[in-house]
Design brief:
The chain has six domains: 184 residues, Beta-Lactamase, CATH 3.30.450.20; 118 residues, PAS domain (Beta-Lactamase); 113 residues, PAS domain (Beta-Lactamase), CATH 3.30.450.20; 104 residues, PAS domain (Beta-Lactamase), CATH 3.30.450; 42 residues; 170 residues, 2-Layer Sandwich (Heat Shock Protein 90). By secondary structure, the chain is of the alpha+beta class. It is elongated and about 160 Å long. Strand 10 and strand 11 form a beta hairpin. The N terminus is likely disordered. The strands form six sheets. Strands 3-2-1-6-5-4 form a six-stranded antiparallel beta sheet, with helices on both faces. It is 46% helix and 25% strand.
Length: 881
């Protein structure tokens, strides 16, 4: 206020209207006091309710401590004794559990206070405030429970987690991945990540990671690849799944999971599990907060009505005071005493409280907690609030206070951020506060009482919990398979997105026990019986049943669920997975049907078998003889293979040597005795030509043998480079023929570079060699075109059967304008020693296309061709993409 203050506007008058209990109730606090001498506890109704008592606002400390949870009693008793002995500067601030004496409810409470000391150091008073903090404690427990649940899921799913910091290129990973890869460091760079990956997979994995790091592609990674562990050299297959996200600092990170799927790929029975943090409980806690806020608003309204009534009564008293001077003197004396008590009440209030007078909001009274809260000291007094706290400029509080002063409507807020300069340092804090207008006898607002509680730690803890939950949910979405979590009594409270995609249903349709609608009617009774038994015993649940897909089809699934227990040994929740085993069940059913049919056949022929026992005995002897003959044939085959290897050695060394001498001595005969041989020169040349053909035939046979017996070591091979090398090798014949070769962009495929060189060497040399003549008898210039495109497996020609299945194939076309062929001879073309033209017409050994087909088969593909005589030929090579 400014100007001369009237008696009705003084803090003394305010004392008559102020209800300190209302202030504490509005702040959600109760008041308590422990008599150091009698050890009697005195508390208000709110503190009493925190202990679940319907009566007894005064009771012995020994009785009160019995209502504290047994695990907390010793700690609280020790804290009280330390405060009563003046230790810790007499400060008392503890959080513990109470067990309601009458209602049996478990509550988390926070008791704060201090012990006042006499000059002699003796405790003369021990008092403070209390507040229920159950929602905050439960929220923290839920975060810890979510983390424990995640660890449980990762453990039962044998899954590790990893995070790539895009900015630094460093990867951090869990202990499971450290064991799997046999790494020794806690973080590694991207270059070391690729080292264990097999060469055949490195290019694909690197491309997949680059796509995932591009936000425009969706930021998702899902790849399987093979590794060789660092120390022991074990061969494993792993599946990595991840999602790109931006953390609170704006850093791009690729986070996900990885698991060893080697056994799963071998047996098709590996399981993985997921969990979902129980966010519904957090939402329920928030709902309880809203109900509490509504309750507080109702209490504020009741207290406001009480103050209005008190104002009216005070106005009547003031009217009576004017009756006589003596009565006025007595009342003034009373008011002065009340003013002193009012100031004492504010100063002794356990929460930060101050009185702001006038529209300028001058601080007239403030207790020590308020001075400590704002860090201003007594310099705040008698100054407009805007001068005492200039940092409030640009923040909403001055405008809110002015609105309260103008409208006379109280304002209350929780968890609001305020930038306040405390002890000369500007910082951000969060407060629960109440602005309550005070009116004079005329009904005009002349002051505002400000009550505030610092809730910075609670707000920061909630924000941290929310950030943890967001990161947790991101990680869950990176895990595969359908997963769920349910309460200890069996009600399902979470499914991952794969459940909704499979069933086509929402959470509301399938939560709690709604999942029963998806189970096949024939499987439901046994499913429920097994599930209920697992719930009752707290043991692992495992069952096979059929789930209805969104299109109405039922598919078999293997269900597994494990109970998760908290640190106190209590069952927290269940986490389970559903793995599709439909194909496996079909195979089992077929096998069972075959076994049944076979059993029936055996039963039907039992009598025949007993009657023909001697015949079977004779047949067994025949089988023994046949097995002996087969063993002999196998032995002969092994000997034949060994002889083939010896022949290959002989052919590459001993047989080539005589052919070279025939060539050399033939050249000597022609050069030294050619003039004497006469017609014999022609015979000599025919001999040398035959020797050359024999040498070429041996080389081609050796090449075919090596390709047939050599295992392909798959590495990324750029076909553009292969064709360039082959054209360089054939440059002489290409230039002589004037051939024009057109090559479009060709793909990179996994394979053996030397074998792919032979494939294109044979196709291109044939395209140049088999030239046709024009009607005028001139050789036509070869026109060769090489191109490639992707073809889906479903679009392959029906007659083709690639050696290895793939969803897509690279189709490489090699087309020419040569002599062509009739397609009825297509199957013969790829056989060894098969020729469609005479050896005098076109040279060659008849092995080239057989080599081509063998190379294609070794690479998991297939080959065919199309042609018409005189119209050229097109060879189509299909290799897995």
């Amino acid at each position: 206020m400014t100007g001369q203050q009237q008696p009705s506007d003084t803090p003394a008058n305010l004392t008559q209207r102020l209800n300190i209990d209302f202030a504490l109730q509005a702040a959600g606090l109760g008041v308590w006091e422990l008599d150091p001498v009698t050890k009697q506890v005195l508390w208000d109704d709110r503190c009493r309710l925190l202990f679940g008592l319907t009566k007894d606002n005064q009771l012995p400390f020994e009785q009160a401590i019995q209502y504290i949870h047994p695990d907390d009693q010793a700690r609280i008793d020790q804290a009280v004794q330390q405060a009563l002995l003046g230790q810790s500067n007499g400060q008392y601030d503890v959080t513990y559990r109470t067990v309601g004496a009458d209602d049996g409810l478990l509550r988390w409470v926070r008791f704060m206070g201090r012990a006042e000391l006499t000059p002699a150091g003796q405790v003369c008073r021990f008092a403070g405030v209390a507040q229920e903090v159950t929602p905050q404690v439960l929220a923290q427990q839920q975060v810890q429970q979510a983390q424990d649940t995640l660890q449980g899921v990762l453990a039962i799913a044998d899954t590790g987690i990893w995070t790539l910091d895009v900015a630094t290129g460093l990867i951090s990973y869990s202990q499971r991945l450290k064991e799997l890869f046999e790494f020794t460091d806690d973080t590694i760079g991207m270059d070391r990540v690729y080292n264990p990956i097999l060469d055949a997979d490195q290019l694909r994995v690197a491309q997949a990671v680059n796509r995932a790091l591009d936000p425009a592609s969706g930021g998702l990674l899902d790849e399987e690849y093979s590794i060789v562990t660092q120390r022991t050299g074990r061969h494993r297959i792993v599946r990595a799944q991840a999602k790109l996200y931006v953390d609170e600092q704006g850093t791009h990170k690729l986070q996900g999971s990885m698991r060893d799927v080697t056994q799963e790929r071998d047996t098709q029975l590996a399981l993985e599990q997921q969990v979902q943090a129980r966010t519904q409980q957090l939402e329920a806690s928030e709902a309880r907060y809203r109900q509490l806020a509504q309750s507080l608003e109702a209490q504020v309204h009741q207290r406001t009505q009480a103050l209005v009534t008190a104002n009216e009564e005070l106005a009547a008293i003031n009217e009576e005071l004017r009756i006589s001077y003596e009565q006025e003197r007595l009342v003034r004396q009373q008011l002065e005493n009340s003013e002193a008590r009012f100031r004492s009440l504010i100063e002794e209030a356990p929460i930060a409280t101050c009185l702001l007078v006038g529209r300028e909001l001058r601080t007239e009274v403030a207790n020590q907690p308020m001075l400590d809260l704002f860090g201003k000291g007594r310099s705040m007094f008698d100054k407009p609030l805007s001068e005492a706290m200039p940092e409030l400029a640009g923040q909403p509080f001055l405008d809110i206070l002015d609105e309260v002063f103008t409208t006379g409507i109280a304002y209350e807020a929780k968890g609001i951020r305020a930038d306040v300069e405390v002890d000369g340092v500007l910082g951000s804090y969060y407060f629960d506060f109440t602005y309550k207008p005070l009116r004079n006898a005329k009904g005009s607002v002349y002051a505002i009482i400000d009550m505030a509680i610092d809730v910075t730690q609670q707000v920061l803890a909630r924000q941290e919990s929310e950030a943890t939950l967001r990161q947790f949910r991101t990680l869950l979405q990176a895990l595969p398979n359908m997963t769920w979590t349910n309460t200890p009594t069996g009600e399902v409270d979470f499914y991952n997105e794969r459940w909704y995609a499979y069933t086509g249903l929402s959470l509301e349709q399938t939560r709690d026990w709604g999942w029963q609608a998806v189970v096949h009617p024939d499987d439901l009774p046994q499913t429920m019986a097994t599930y209920q038994q697992a719930l009752a015993r707290g043991e692992e649940f495992m069952f096979e049943n059929r789930y209805r897909r969104a299109d109405g089809q039922y598919r078999w699934h293997l269900n597994r669920a494990l109970p998760l227990y908290g640190e106190d040994g209590q069952l927290v929740n269940w986490v389970g997975t559903a793995t599709d085993i439909h194909e496996q069940k079909q195979v089992e059913a077929q096998l069972e049907q075959q076994v049944q049919e076979r059993t029936e056949q055996l039963a039907a022929s039992n009598e025949e078998l007993s009657a023909t026992n001697e015949e079977l005995t004779a047949t067994n002897k025949d089988f023994i003889a046949a097995n002996q003959a087969l063993e002999g044939a196998n032995h002969d085959l092994l000997r034949s293979n060994k002889n083939l290897e010896q022949f290959a050695y002989i052919a590459s060394h001993d047989m080539q040597e005589p052919l070279r001498k025939i060539q050399q001595f033939g050249d000597l005969l022609k050069s030294q005795y050619g003039d004497r041989l006469g017609d014999g020169v022609a015979y000599l040349e025919r001999m040398q030509t035959a020797a050359s053909r024999m040498s070429a035939l041996i080389r081609d046979l050796l090449a075919f043998s090596r390709i047939s017996t050599t295992q392909v070591i798959a590495q990324p091979v750029a076909l553009d480079q292969v064709v360039s090398r082959v054209l360089e090798t054939l440059s002489v014949v290409v230039e002589e023929s004037g051939a024009q070769v057109e090559v479009t962009s060709l793909p990179v495929v996994p394979g053996d570079r030397s074998q792919l060189d032979q494939l294109f060497q044979n196709l291109l040399s044939n395209a140049v060699k088999f030239r046709r003549t024009s009607p005028g008898g001139e050789l036509v210039t070869p026109q060769i075109r090489i191109k490639a495109n992707l073809v889906a497996e479903s679009d392959l020609p029906p007659s083709l059967h690639p050696a290895r299945y793939a969803q897509t194939y690279h189709c490489i076309e090699v087309a020419d304008n040569g002599i062509g062929f009739e397609e009825k001879y297509l199957d013969r073309m790829f056989e060894v020693f098969q020729r469609l033209h005479g050896k005098n017409e076109f040279g060659g050994t008849g092995i080239g296309l057989a080599i081509v087909q063998k190379v294609v088969i070794n690479h998991g593909g297939a080959i065919t061709a199309t042609s018409e005589p005189g119209q050229g030929a097109t060879f189509l090579v299909y290799l897995p993409a």
